[in-house]
Amino acid sequence: MPLDTSTYSLALLRLDGRRWNELRRLNAQISTQAAADGSSYLEMGNTKVICTVTGPAELKSTGGARAGGDKADVRVEISIAGFSGVDRKKRGRNDKRVSEMQTTISNAFAQSLFTNLYPHSSISLSLHILSQDGSLLAACLNACTLALIDAGVPMRDYICACTAGSTSSYSSNDEQADPLLDLNGIEEQELPFLTVGTLGNSDKVSVLVMETRVQVGRLEGMLAVGVDGCKQVREILDQVVRKRGVKILEGSQL
Amino acid sequence: MTSLKRSLGSDPLSSSISSKVFVRSTKSGKVQKIVRELYLRQDIPCSSKLCTACLATAPRDAAGVLAPFVLSAKPAGTKAYPNGHYLLPDTNALLNALDLFESTSAFYDVIILQTVLEELRNRSLPLYNRLIGLTKSAEKRFYVFFNEFRLETYVHREQGETINDRNDRAVRRAGKWYDEHLSQAVKAAGGNKKSVPTVVMLSDDKENLKKAKRDGVAACGLKDYVSMLENAEQLLDMIAVVKEGREIRDARAQESLYAEYYSVSKMMTGVKNGTLHQGIFNVSPYNYLEGSINVPAFDKNLLVLGRESINRAVQGDVVVVEVLPKDQWKEPSTKIIEEEALNKNENADAEDGEAVVTERERKALQEEVKKVHSKSSEGRPQPTARVVGVVKRNWRQYVGHVDESSVSQSVKESRKQQTVFLIPMDKRIPKIRVRTRQAGEIIGKRVLVTIDSWDRDSRYPIGHFVRSLGELETKGAETEALLLEYDVQYRPFPKAVLDCLPTEGHDWKVPVSTDDPGWKDRRDLRGLQICSIDPIGCQDIDDALHARPLPNGNFEVGVHIADVSHFVKPNNAMDAEASIRGTTVYLVDKRIDMLPMLLGTDLCSLKPYVERYAFSAIWEITPDAEIVKSDFTKSVIKSREAFSYEQAQIRVDDASQQDELTTAMRTLLILSKKFKQKRMDAGALSLSSPEVRVETESETSDPIDIKTKKHLDTMSLVEEFMLLANTSVAAKIYSAFPQTAMLRRHGAPPKTNFEELANQLKVKKGLELRTSSSKELADSLDACVDPQEPFFNTLVRIMATRCMMSAEYFCSGTQAYPEFRHYGLASEIYTHFTSPIRRYADLVAHRQLAAAIDYEPLDASVRSKGKLESVCKNINVRHRNAQQAGRASIEYYVGQALKGRIVEEEGFVMKVFSNGFVVFVPRFGIESLIRLRDLAETEPESTFDAEDYVLRTSGSREVEVELFEKVVVRISDIKEEGTGKRKVRLELVKTGGK
Fold this sequence. Notes:
heterodimer, A: alpha+beta, Ribosomal Protein S5, domain 2, B: alpha+beta, CATH 2.40.50.690, 5-stranded antiparallel beta sheet, 29 helices, endonuclease (chain B), 3'-5'-RNA exonuclease activity (chain B), cytoplasm (chain B)
């Protein structure tokens, strides 16, 4: 058993050697699968996600109130690989946690995409989680943004997400708690954290999820650090997109 | 098609990213492979005040605050390191000698590596916590260097390299880096080479030292280093002897004395499938060779008999046992076996021919077995077991004294190292073998030692000497010994705590203006006739009372409790300290406060004639003691008078006193009697424990006399209203916070606890003890009277009290409502509310009540179940320790008061063994053993009738001793060889009373 998060105060270093305001290594590629309309692969530390987009396509399922919509339907499906975590675990079809993540992502993109351009159609996002080490929802959101750009779906701006936490747990009530950026798996287990997603370079928060308890006083700091992190994430994603754009213009990847 | 490229290679930062991969197995036996990222960096400072380069890149926290650098610019030097030196201990050095690092005479400027810290944490959590404590203290200058995250000091584990070798290499690498870094830093600052401190690696590992020499890192063995220091001799003893001892023994290849422990996985599977059992090992206070373990699978305790079965378990350890076959089941022993009596003349140094069980021990046990087998009515044999493994050692520091006979005369004066026996004060702990050079000096002193290990080939555990407390039987040493033994925090309050006190100090007053924020939501009760009743000389007055008639014929009664929560805010240093201390500890001559004096005896204390903040519970009560309504509020009061119990009693009894205060007290007294009757009807128990008070001379606090405590009506007056307040508060906070209320429960004792006592009463007195409910028990205890002997009832009550469970604090969410019951008070729900100055539980209850009446929001720490549970766990232990420490202190003073006196007194036989009996002397509240061999010069022959609890002796002295019998004993004092305590010694004068 190596050290836990309580040693942060000794040298202001986190479990993996980062400072409070540092992101993990973030790597992404787009157009990884030629068969899909749009695809991306994203790593945030050891969290690894593949996303593919199908659509906008004609709505298949007829019947029910959804069929006659004047906006495109954003559907999200997440599958978590059995080998992605420390323990091999099989998740059922109706896992609550997974379906909540699906709804969160779907609601977020329903707002940022111009869905009104595609009535009676659906945009399907399919996410495969290959490896989990914290900030899963954030990684999924970022991967979706890239894949949707690759698919050419018009959008208002990028949705960029990351997590933010606090160095001491809820009950320890430490006055000098530092906010933390981009938590890894162990930190998520021990510390309170939230996932925040912003729209592009603005401070507009489009996703905010928090499931742990934290003192109200610390929330503001966490949110500020999280929003700041989102901007850094946007920079990185933007570079990935631009690099791809340059390649296309050179004609090498058509 | 595009293919996914490995992203690592393209990353410009990849040289600074590494990953840590390791495999671990969980409790359930699963194997997990863990992969973690490591971000290597170059901005981790060396924290030496010599270095300016690190200062520029040193990290700041979110608030932009820079942690100050720790290691001094001019560290102390020794002969070998004249330029001064920083110490760099490896894990073994810390494991073997953390005591050294805690000493104040040396060991400053120490660099603790992350590698070492992690390893230490894996090896021993208590040591890790102590080390963390050290790194937080500013004057010791300990710095934790996160070498695993610094690019230059990170080392990869090589193919085939063991993790220990890798870690040792990491330590050497860090040492080397520090060396180079410091000389660069000094050069940059323009200093000369002479002023570069050496970084000295401390290790006990020869291989590591050798490699360090090869790598050019200054390194030194722990022993060699300590011998260079000034007070080397004292310090040397603090190094654990484990290693050396083992080497000597290995050379001899001696046979092991004890059976080997099972492997952890074997124990775990055994416990899981029910073939083995896990529990806490307890040693009988009368027989050091008999232990017992309570396991869920059996209703009766499992007995562990004899040294071989006990197999190196020490009192309090969590052990795994294997039940022995049924034909080896035995009755608990009826014989007193004391270690020092049997193995008096052992030589601590002797190692050849050492057997686990000495001849005399074997004989003592043999007789036991014979007796059990010879009896026709086999009685009630109990399952026996043997220890097969220890899950968790519960070793702590033990107080004791050196067995003088184990010190060889010739070396008493010299400095030669020798092995001596240390006899712990706690009789249930075995002798500890200690190697020391100071044998001559520490004879006749109270000393503190630690157990280091207990190997299979050693009959006794091996330990090392920590420090000396002072001469035996001096007040200072004995008091400190007591406090250490019961783990009472007695050091003065640190500055951080004192900083939390109000700045006005003793001049603090209730604000005059009622607009002051302190008055917010406080009721002004200054007009009420309030008084307090406490023992004589009480300074920390927690509670005060008032009563007044209402126009409708009912009474208004108020209990006012010191408003400690106003001064002690949650989560500051003072609160943390109080929660660790848990309770104030009362010794005969000393009080160890939970809160600083300023609060306890002045600002919080409800002293008379001054205004104080209080937390009041006010009821409307009918003359028949029915509660019409209750109300809780924060208030300001002014106590009119502080009575002692005696003064209050005199005032109440004096019919000529008709003032308001006295009539109020009379009202309270009448009501309290009605409340008491109601409680008794509901089945509350009136239990008894031997209570005496030591009168001391006021100047020197030397004991002069011992008095049994007298009971006055005014005492139960106060008690009844405190119980009332506690119960009403408990109900209130439970309704407000069903999951997290701080409550106190007293479990119903299991029936088996009373079996022995019920049987004794039946056989000896023909009385029946019914234990099915507390009401039944209370009634049958009332019936236990002997018309000839008024004290008999009290005696039975004392014995019944010992069969009870102990009450405990708990957090309401952890138990079901029926389990909340307080058995002794026959109350459905109960808490402690009335003494916040001296108990932490009450302080928590205050905070919860304040939140329940919407006075202030509830702090997070008293709302989290997990946190409260850990608080409860701690204060339960502290509470028990405080009680025991108090009792032990009285025992010590009784011994001192009787010093040099010889008195004859009446006593009662409480327990009969086959070779002795226990006599209780109510006059002094003492209880002591009389052994057969104390009866006459040559030990008389005896027959013991276990059925009838009669011991008959013949031969050199003929007496017949039976249970509950009144005897006359001569009391004198004697210095007990075994524990070094001055103790009373009883001699039987005659049986059958005066």
